[in-house]
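Journal club side-thread
Mid-discussion, someone asked how the predicted structure for our own chain would compare to the paper's figures. Pasting it here so we can look after the session.
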Amino acid sequence: MAPTTTSLGRAPPQLVGGWEAGLLIFLALLYLGGALVNPAFFGSAEALLALLRDTSRVGIIAVGMTFVIANKDLDLSVGSTYGLIAVVFARLFASDALDFGVIECAIFCLLLGTVIGLLNGILVTILRVPAFIATLTMLFIGRGFVLALTHGQAIYYSSKAKDYPLFFRLGEINTLGFNNQIAVFLLVAVVGAYVLAKTRWGYETFATGGNEQAAAYAGINTRWVRIRAYLLSSLCATLSALLAAAQDKGVTPLYGVSWELTVIASVVIGGASILGGRGRVFGSCLGAAVVVLIDKVLREGWPITRTVVIDGENVAVGARFTLPAGAVLVFLGLLLVTAVLIEPFLIRRQIATRFWAWLRGRPPPPAYETGGVALEGVQTKGAMATDMALSATGLGKFLARRDALAIILTVVLWLTGLALRPDYWWNLPNTFAILLNYTELALITVGLTYVIAAGDIDLSVGAVLALAGSTAAYFLKVLGADPFTAVAMGLLAGTAAGLVNAVVTVGFKLPAFIATLGMFYIARGLAAWFVAGQQLTGWPEGYNLLGRKVNDVLLHFGFSLPSGIVRAVAEVVSVQTIFMFLVALVAGVILAYTPFGLKVCAAGGNVRAAAYAGINTNRVRFLSLMLAALCSTMAGIINVAYFRSFNPVAGQFRELDAIASVIIGGGSIFGGYGTMIGSLAGAAVITLVRALLQLNVQGFSMPQHWINVFIGLILIVAVLIDIWVRQANLFARLRARVATAAPTGERIHG
């Protein structure tokens, strides 16, 4: 009998496929819906061309991002790269700035984009910094440079642009009636699609993203493949920024804000897998069109009729309904999380194809592999430095501790401040003012220590702080609620955000950085939505007691302390500081001395071994993410009480500060280790660095945006120390190599 074989059917298309066809249909229906609700805007050819023009810049960046995501990497710096290149071009070109020619400016911007791409690639591949940490830090550093170079003001150069019509024509409408950016976008898309689908570069990209270890065994230089993808991503962002400069003939500090989210959502909606090994450029371009169109529909709103009373008569007037401040951010965050869930639950399981086969009565197609990569190195993380500490004695035992660096730095920074400004630093009220700034960061760091020790990350802690504060302020000011109700509602909002993070990360098995990045935008948008983008203030003093000094609280309830040391301390120590230390004490004891704390470190050190040992790692990770949200929520509620107001930008950059605090304090970015003393010391280091940089020394103090750049550099250095000094034990390996080489040299010369 002849052997039976099973046909796998046609090979999957490499340039376009059924997913792109579905996106085209969805795009057409979406545009039709926009034309129905707002015909004045979407019902014209000019609106369609405007959509294609705006899609062009996002789509060009999405082409480069497709290579990065297909490599199983991520580039969160594309938005800040786009903004930085546009600002640098403006500063170089504008007549009232450096006044260079357009060719020199464009060449310098291309070189700068190349440098940014190389930095990202080297950090991720050679220095082994996790992609989301390296590029997130570059995002904050780039955004700091944007604010520093613009001084928060727009820069325009429309009059000088008339002298260079050839370049600035790129941003204008051509004789065929459409913007030249569309032509550039189509060219980049066609070249990118061909390279990814039909050349060796594309094959190497898919092999590296599908299984990097197997690709290396096959002779592919995976390190160069990944660096090359970051170069392409950065250069695409550079090209997009130059097109924006040609169109707008100016720049604002808001250029590129949240674009990283838009681009990642575009690529994932286009069919790329966040797990690597899959992606098509044409799909990413269509995904960009979908995201830009949805954004336009939400921002433009739809026409409505309002009735106003004039001289006692009702008069109908035309108006336009638009969503409140923050609503678009909420939608983009939801879109990112939904888009990432599409790949594992729809594409990998081939739901549409299987349904179509069932309708035709044919056998279903073979399922894609869903079990992850075939070859994966297993290691127990966080053990090297712990073993060194156990074997050391005396002072070496302290120096071998992972948190020793943070403790030493805290003392050194404190003495530095004392030496620079003893009149300010030695003053007791000023000292406790620094402690107040420390309290908020330390409280966030307490929860984040558990998350990082468990092998996850939470990029939403600052946004959750803002969400909890916004909710409490809304209930106090708008609804007139009592303080207890406001606190309860703030706690409910913040813990709900943590619950979503935990469910999406643990339940749906999404990478924690993707789930919490989506929540970062959702929570930040909701915080602005609740207060309509405005600052709220003015509510009962009973709520503000949460952020007051101990003596103020006692006086509020009719108690007066006698003069002396106790009263002096009560006048400078705040309720929030005492609360923070109590929370840190309980959390530290649980992490260091209870079975749950050991399970947290075991799950982060080696999740597979922890599961084999009977530990419910999902439960451990779930509770850790919930704790991080709870700590951020408490910080947000206290923030409103301390400032007696709420500002929608509350908690900004706290993600960066908190992650840096945990890593400086000895925590490993790969999980498996963390101490509460170390994390609190790390938070003290960040707080003291900010205080020193803001210190007025002989009339000079550093602006806030440069401080954020400096903190970003500190985070990168802290992660590199964790990877190369604590994990790889670089210094010990160098000493061993020198010791081995010395006897060899003696024998040669002897």
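Post-session note: The mean pLDDT is 83.
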